Each structure stands twice: as C-alpha cells, then as structure tokens.
Amino acid sequence: MNTLSADEVATTRLRAVERVLGDLSGVPIVGEPVAIRRKSRDYFWYSPILNEQLAGKVADAVVAPRHEEDVVRIAAACARHGVPLTPRGAGTGNYGQCVPMEGGVVIDMIGMTKIISHAPGMVRVEAGARMVDIDASLAASGWELRMHPSTKRTATIGGFVAGGSGGVGSITYGGLREPGNILGARVVTLEREPRVLDLSADAAQKINRAYGTTGIITRLDMPLAPKWDWVDLVISFTDYATAVQVGHEIALADGIVKKLVSACEAPLPAHFAGIADKVADGASVLLCMIAKPFIPYFKALIAERGAVVHEEDFDESPGHAPIYEYAWNHTTLNVLKTDRSVTYLQCLFPHDRLAESVRETSALFGDEQMQHLEFIRFGGRLTASALPVIRCSTAPRINDMIAAYEARGVFVANPHVITLEDGSRHKRADADQLGFKHDVDPQGLLNPGKMRTFTPKSDTV
Ligand SMILES: Cc1cc2nc3c(=O)[nH]c(=O)nc-3n(C[C@H](O)[C@H](O)[C@H](O)COP(=O)(O)OP(=O)(O)OC[C@H]3O[C@@H](n4cnc5c(N)ncnc54)[C@H](O)[C@@H]3O)c2cc1C
Q: Which end of the chain has less neighbouring CB within 10 Å, N or C?
C-alpha cells in the first residue's frame, strides 16, 4: 500500500483548502499569516505539557461567517473537499480546544453576535455573542445569564456551551450539564448538503462540552436568572481551614442570594494585583458576589472569623476588574502573570467529605500546591470544584498528583490533555455525543483529534 509523506499530505490539503476558499466568494476570509496563527491558539500554554505538544499547530485558512447561511456554505465546502474545520469563539479555552490539530480551516464565529430575542427567563442569541454583551443587552429587563465563566468579558456563549463547564452562578444553578441550563441549540452539520438541526431540551446536551466536534452551533436558547445588584467582597482569614469552613457555610445558606464564593489559599492573594495590598501577608481569602439586600446576613455569618477587606458595588465596565476576574481559572492566570513556572489541576471534591478531603490533600502536597476552591452545586448537592495552582512542570509529577487526588475520592478532569475523553472525569465520550457525531460529521472533519473514540465509518470517507 502506498502511504503519502507528511509533505505530500500537507500539499494535498493545501490544494483542497484553496478549493474550499474558491467556493466561498463573499465570505470574509482572514489572510494574514500572523492573524491565522493567532486564531489557531487558545490558552493551552497554562499547561507545560500542551505548550510543547501544540507548538506549531496552525490552520491553513480562517473564515469568518456573518450569518448562518455563510456557516452552511463553509460546512458544505469543507465536506465536499474533505477539509478539517475547527470552530472557534474567542479562543479562551484552556486545553487547545480550538487548536486545529490537522490544519485546514478555522471557522471564527465572533461575527455572529445577534441577540435575537428574549422573554422572561430565556434569551435566544447567535453563538458568537460575548456573554458580557448578552447581559448588557438584558440589563433593563431585570434578567441575566444564570452563569458565565470568569472570561465573561471576552468569551462567546457558543464557546462556553461547546467548551466550558460552569462558573460564576454555578453555586446556585450547578454546571452547564445540569438539565435546564441549556434550553436549545441550532447546529449546522458537516455534510456535502449540511442540515440545520434544532436541538431542544436534553438533545442540546449533544453539543455541550463536545469541543465543537458535534456540529457548528449557530444559535442558542439560554435560561436566565433574576438580575440583582451584586456586591463584590473579599474576606480575609488567618488560616485556610477557616476560610473553607466559612465559605461552605455561606454556600449552604440558601436565603443569602449569591453568585460566587471562592476560597483562595495563601499566598494566592498576593498575586491579585488589584486587591493584594488589602490582604495581610500569609492570609487566605474568600472572594464573594452577594446580592445587596443580603449583605447584613452575610456579614453576620462571617462574624468574628474573617475581616471584610474589600467591598464595592459590582462593576464590569472596561478598565475595572470585577472580583470574578480573580476567581475560577483567572486565579491561575493571576499567578502566571508573574510566575510562569506554575500550572493547575481541575478537581471535584466529594460533597460528604469536603473539609476532610481538602485537609488531606493539602497535607499531602504542602507548598507544592496553593489550593483554590469554587463552591458549586453538583447534581443538587453543595460541594466544591477546585483549581489548585501547582508548582510542578513535569508530566510524571502532574500525573502522580492527579493519581493521589483520585485515590482519595476526588475526581480530576485533567487539563493537560486535548481529547474530551481524557479530559473528562469518566475518561470517555458521552455515548450520545459519539453517536450524534456519526450522524452530523460522518467524515470526522470537525475539530479532528479531539474526540479520540470516534472513527469514521469507511463508507463515509
Ligand atoms: C482565565 C481563564 C478563566 C476561565 N474560566 C472559566 C470558567 O470560569 N468556567 C469555564 O467553564 N471555563 C473557563 N475558562 C475556559 C474558557 O474561557 C471558557 O470555557 C469560555 O467560555 C470559552 O469560550 P470561547 O468563546 O473563548 O471559546 P473557544 O475557546 O474559542 O472555544 C472553546 C471550544 O468550543 C468550540 N466552539 C466555539 N464556538 C463554537 C461554535 N459556535 N460551535 C461549535 N463549537 C464551538 C471550539 O471548537 C472549542 O472546542 C477559562 C479560561 C481562562 C483562560
């Protein structure tokens, strides 16, 4: 059997990409090599392992659809010429989720930004809309998105649904995977004659955190929450165990309306540029977003155990960092700004052994780890996910730490791998998503390399 050399494969693909672009007259195309390189990256550099593995992975072309009709034409052209197509929102994903592993075309969704309609409790938007813009457009209605990642001011709603897991608001509503947190999605299939499918209710889970491998999302229906006047607060504690204990109590206090409770272990706060000077050396903090009417009850709960060192009305206008930009994976980013030797893990603590598990693993890793918990609801129970910042950079040590967590009943979603199976807690693709992929992307052209267990059926290639 004749096998093609890498150069021959690349030349054949480039010719096919040229044919794709030839079929797309009128669709905006990004031509400059620097822009193409930029649009082929995300925040995978958080991981020393991925930083090495993904160096040099670049698309051959980037196209920027203006509307769903453009998306259909792009999908048809890629299917016709057998060219890989990788969807991209704002490129803030952490695991090379939108890195085109096999080159081909990147479809940049940030031109599709319409807020199509909203009704009490629900909004319909195009996938490239930034979450900050969605909330701004809803402000007068008294509603807002139930949850958003800490990258809200940059990231798109399509990228969040296809690549994210939850975030600010998950303390009340759980993660994106909880039934009801995505109401509907419209997707374009990757076929010579693409179909446009409306997925509603549970069916919308077929595209949730599938890294864009199961269709190009053009539109989403998202549920909303009542909009409160939020207050950003930082509470300082002399020891981390007390911060965790008080954070847990606040999270459990159902009458106190809240959107964020993060527990960051010392010396993490020393890296939070806007608030570091308010926190004593060696102190740990809780970062909280609390609805204004409940502040007195919140403060009563803290009592004498911690000190409020920062309190201001929520403000996410340009030039001002809201408190959520120190939380979730911004915590790691704030450390990386001054110390590129650290990286992180993503853990889910058992709800019934939360404090003990945190204590146990902190004792195990000592100074090698700075713990960072995010209180969330998960399957109806209150627990904490964690993004500990770790001082280690070799694959064997990272894997040892993951194994040590898992041996103690803490789930780890490995952020140092690119496939959705290896990065999931269960180490497998959701069966529904795998079956759906055969239906919507029979040639396996959508973001190839990210769904490891998918192999195209031979009669479709
Ligand atoms: C500092 C920092 C903090 C973060 N905090 C959080 C957090 O709190 N919670 C969280 O869940 N994540 C977090 N993330 C990860 C990421 O920011 C979010 O998941 C974000 O929502 C991704 O949106 P994006 O527009 O940047 O998507 P991208 O990174 O561009 O894409 C993400 C994935 O979605 C796919 N995709 C994008 N658009 C579409 C589309 N229209 N159709 C099909 N597939 C598509 C891409 O192929 C890719 O696989 C964080 C990352 C950083 C760097």
A: N
Which of 16, 35, 153, 149 is closest to 94 using CA atoms? Answer: 149
Distance (angstroms) between ligand 1 centre and the Cα of 33 equals 23
Closest residue by Cα to atom 9, ligand 1, is 149
Cβ–ligand 1 distance for 385 under 6 Å, the answer no
Residues 338 and 362 in one domain: yes
How far does residue 191's CA lie from ligand 1's centre (Å)?
25
Rounded distance between C-alpha atoms, residue 304 and residue 235, angstroms: 11
131 CA → ligand 1 middle, Å: 11
Same domain for 355 and 371?
yes
Q: Both 202 and 335 in a single domain? A: no
d(CA 67, CA 59) in angstroms, rounded, equals: 22
Sign of the torsion angle spanned by Cα atoms 110, 112, 115, 117: negative
Distance between first and last Cα of the chain: 18
Mean pLDDT in residue range 290-315: 97
Give the pLDDT band of residue 460 (cuts 50, 70, 90). low
Where in the sequence is the domain holding 394, given as residue range(s)?
Answer: 230-412
SS3 state at 310 = strand
Domain end marker among 162, 191, 226: 226
Is the pTM for the entire model greater than 0.70? yes
Burial of 461 (0-12, 13-18, 19+ CB in 10 A): exposed
419 Cβ closer than 6 Å to some ligand 1 atom? no
Q: Rounded to an integer, what distance in angstroms lies between the CA atom of residue 316 and that of residue 77?
A: 40
| Closest CA to ligand 1's atom 28 | 91
Distance 237 CA to ligand 1 centre (A): 32
- pLDDT tens per residue, range 55-83: 999 999 999 999 999 999 999 999 999 99
